[in-house]
Specification:
This protein has 15 helices and 11 strands. It is α+β, with helices and mostly antiparallel strands and 447 residues long. The chain binds zinc ion. The site of zinc ion (ZN) has 7 residues, from loops.
């Protein structure tokens, strides 16, 4: 006895049970699997099955489009004027959709393409995949990943199309994120917030400039910092924002304020601690937040201080290492004055030109940021924020992975900005909501 599994799709009148149309989607012999490969359906067979099911459903849905014989313009009789084929790109498969075209003697004509009727030929699921894949990988890699998933080379998954999808979605997300967020009610306000502001470099596609800076900020309530184990922490709730636009920081300042408000800032309740690497363009962002806080504390990020010491330390011999460590110790205890004095004599004592130069840069760095130096040791004891070590992954995960300077890919500011909007949305775990808003803007609903 030969046995098969037959998959049949039926179009049925639910009331009478009458089968109006049916199709055999697959028929496969049932045999003992000799290898695991033979168990169930192959990846490609699964895709083929979906594809034939889709074709069947789409066929019966498409007849319902432009079905009415009444002209919406004059209420006269709308007449059929042929059937037009549109290509539809679903999440994993592509399909032809046959759409009836209607015309009226008054001059009215129905829309007859998916683009015209719904605003796109891409199913929202595919557009979302494009946006996510293209913001996380190079466009070429995104094509590969998507085609692998569909087990075929689909013309829709090409570099240019994915780039367009990313910018279409990114632009809308960017626009929405710029809309002013209201201050929370006093009862909902949080006592403390931390904002970490940093910049990352992106390779420019303009001939005259090699790179530009994108600004990134992450805002979180220290209460949302959960210790996983000795070396791992997680910020369970945070809002990250980024801008690559050159507009005298107008965009990033609005985005950072919005992020603070989402995290519950209140001008009479919240103490905001700002951690930066000391660059002027970071302080200029945090300083605009002052009117929206009860207290603002600018702190030169201990993470960045340590980083600078470590770089120099690695080039020194042991006796000099000790001297440098002591200077760092003064800074750790909030004694910038002594640290600067010691550093100054250190520079004079050093004979090696490279070391002298590095120490001078360090001296200038500390001097420049002196008013933002705090007693780090004391803050640690009092459990107050002083380092971005915990949030520092932002620049790395938001810019470097996708747009790092030494990668071949070159960016326009706008292109980079759009990618960053999608990345920050995913990073802030607000993608679900942001995408839902974007989807409503991109797609039209048919009455
Ligand atoms: Zn009409």
């Amino acid at each position: 006895m030969e046995r098969v599994i037959r998959i049949v799709a039926q179009h049925v009148n639910k009331e009478t049970g009458e089968v109006l149309d049916s199709v055999v989607c697959r028929e496969d012999a049932v045999k003992k699997p000799e290898t695991l490969m033979e168990l169930g359906y192959l990846h490609i067979e699964q895709i083929e099955l979906l594809s034939s099911l889709q074709d069947f459903k789409i066929k019966h849905q498409a007849v319902l489009i432009n079905q009415s014989d009444v002209c919406p313009n004059c209420n006269g009789k709308a007449r059929a004027q042929g059937i037009i084929k549109s290509t539809f790109h679903a999440a994993l498969t592509d399909h032809d959709v046959l759409i009836r075209r209607k015309r009226c003697t008054c001059g009215w004509g129905s829309k007859y393409s998916l683009e015209g009727i719904y605003g796109s030929t891409l199913h929202p699921d595919l557009l979302e995949k494009h946006a996510i894949q293209g913001s996380e990988n190079s466009y070429r890699k995104a094509c590969k990943n998507l085609n692998y998933e569909s087990k075929s080379i689909r013309s829709i998954n090409n570099v240019d199309r994915i780039r367009r999808s990313v910018s279409k979605v990114g632009e809308i997300v960017a626009f929405e994120k710029l809309q002013e967020v209201n201050e929370v009610k006093k009862v909902d306000a949080v006592d403390n917030l931390i904002v970490v502001v940093d910049g990352g470099h992106v390779k420019s596609n303009q001939n005259d400039s090699r790179s530009f800076e994108a600004m990134i900020a992450t805002v979180y309530d220290p209460n949302n910092l959960k210790v996983i184990d000795k070396n791992h922490n997680e910020i369970t709730q945070k809002t990250s924002v980024a801008s690559a636009i050159s507009d005298e920081q107008k965009t990033i300042k609005q985005l950072v304020l919005n992020a603070c408000r989402k995290e519950g800032i209140h001008s009479k309740v919240t103490t905001l601690t700002c951690l930066t690497d000391g660059a002027n363009n970071c302080w200029s962002i945090t300083n605009t937040l002052k009117p929206y806080t009860k207290t603002i504390v600018n702190v030169l990020d201990w993470f960045h201080i340590t980083k600078r010491f470590t770089v120099i330390n690695n080039t020194l011999n042991d006796s000099l290492k000790d001297r440098l460590t002591k200077i760092k110790w003064h800074l750790w205890h909030g004694d910038a004055k002594t640290a600067l004095e010691r550093l100054n004599t250190f520079i004079k004592d050093v004979t090696e030109e490279k070391t002298s130069e590095q120490l001078t840069h360090l001296y200038e760095y500390i001097k420049r940021n002196q008013k933002h130096l705090v007693n780090y040791q004391k803050r640690q004891v009092e459990n107050l924020p002083f380092t971005s070590t915990l949030a520092e992954s932002s620049v790395n995960s938001l810019i470097n992975i996708r747009q790092k300077c030494n990668q071949k890919m070159q960016w326009s500011r706008v292109g980079s900005h759009n990618v960053l909007q999608i990345r920050t949305s995913i990073f802030s775990k607000s993608w679900f909501q942001d995408w839902s808003v974007a989807q409503d803007k991109i797609y039209k609903k048919v009455a």
